[in-house]
Amino acid sequence: MNETVAQRTAQLRARAEIDLAAVRANVRALRERAPGAALMAVVKADGYGHGAAACARAAVGAGATWLGTATPQEALALRAPGAGVPADVRIMCWLWTPGGPWREAIEADLDVSVSGTWALEEVRRAARLAGRAARVQLKADTGLGRGGCQPDDWAGLVAGALRAEAEGLLRVTGLWSHFACADEPGHPSIAAQLARFREMVAYAEEQGVRPEVRHIANSPATLTLPETHFDLVRPGIAMYGVSPSPEIGTPADFGLRPAMTLSASLALVKHVPGGHGVSYGHHYVTPGATTLGLVPLGYADGIPRHASSAGPVLVEGKWRTVAGRVAMDQFVVDLGGDEPAPGAEAVLFGPGDRGEPTAEDWAQAAGTIAYEIVTRIGTRVPRVYVNATA
Ligand SMILES: *Cc1c(COP(=O)(O)O)cnc(C)c1O
């Protein structure tokens, strides 16, 4: 079977349709929220499961001038000619481990994040080998307590970066940080992190750092906290049309539209008697004679097993619920006596305007966040792009 046949037949089972017009419109809506700032489209984790290169191109088409990824491999892939990302688009990556591809990153003109002196040393060595200055963004831990340089260590990191800059080995192109609770309106850590960020930026600038960009705003901050926008905003989830948290609002509240629709074709529809156990462990037992529909997607495809007996699916205009356990490759819905034809469409989630559930509905059913729902859709599910051109 050749590639094309494999792709087409895979789509018969299930598909994640990605509406690139929605991505473009979302990026434009985010730019309107932050009119004074540049926009970095965050396309880590394969564009939150939507496809990194396609979403990067769409975002750039809608005015994003930066792209952001976690790993250097993700960033380098966006510099490959096949990705179709213009060479003048800045690409930044922030999750490094010792021995990482610093030299390749420098040669690919990436912006690399540095949180500690080990990384500064590796950058300096790689810049010597590459024979050109690295673009380095210093990351401050203003309170998230994850990556970034602690305030007590900041003076040392800034001094080391300035020495390397004087040697011609790097340029400090950015000063940046990340919020812990920007999706919780009024959380006291927001103001505390912002104040700390201002102090750490001011210190670095007093010492002589001249960054091109200062940035701290993720999606919730881009949407709701204009005082955090600085020179650049870094939305991820919102560009895919998903709200960072139901607490701050729905996508529609912000003029956003979910870009991914996940659907499958029923693999079997059959009559079963009452009292019939369904799926592993028999956690669902049919309350009476009914029909069951077999949905050919499972936890190997990213359907959370925690959504067993809870996840919603739209079949022929009606919401049905996962009956019993989600298995590796399939799950069952009780169709209540309805008899859709085999192959009938089962929509797990989408924008919601055809009456289908949303990724947020699945997140609530599984006790997680919508980020995890869209990001984990597996590689066995083909991405089908629509509205690739404006
Ligand atoms: C993932 C990520 C973002 C984007 O976060 P969203 O909440 O999806 O907008 C921004 N900055 C960093 C450092 C990240 O890791």
Automatic annotation (TrEMBL):
It comes from Streptomyces fimbriatus. The modification N6-(pyridoxal phosphate)lysine is found at residue 44. Belongs to the alanine racemase family. It catalyses: L-alanine = D-alanine. It comes from the Bacteria. Pathway: Amino-acid biosynthesis; D-alanine biosynthesis; D-alanine from L-alanine: step 1/1. Keywords: Isomerase, Pyridoxal phosphate. Substrate binds at residues 146, 328. Catalyzes the interconversion of L-alanine and D-alanine. May also act on other amino acids. InterPro entries: Ala_racemase (IPR000821), Ala_racemase/Decarboxylase_C (IPR009006), Ala_racemase_C (IPR011079), Ala_racemase_N (IPR001608), Ala_racemase_pyridoxalP-BS (IPR020622), PLP-binding_barrel (IPR029066). Its EC number is 5.1.1.1. This is Alanine racemase. The keyword Kinase does not apply. The active site is at residues 44, 280. GO terms for molecular function: alanine racemase activity. Its cofactor is pyridoxal 5'-phosphate. Residues 259-386 form the Alanine racemase C-terminal domain.
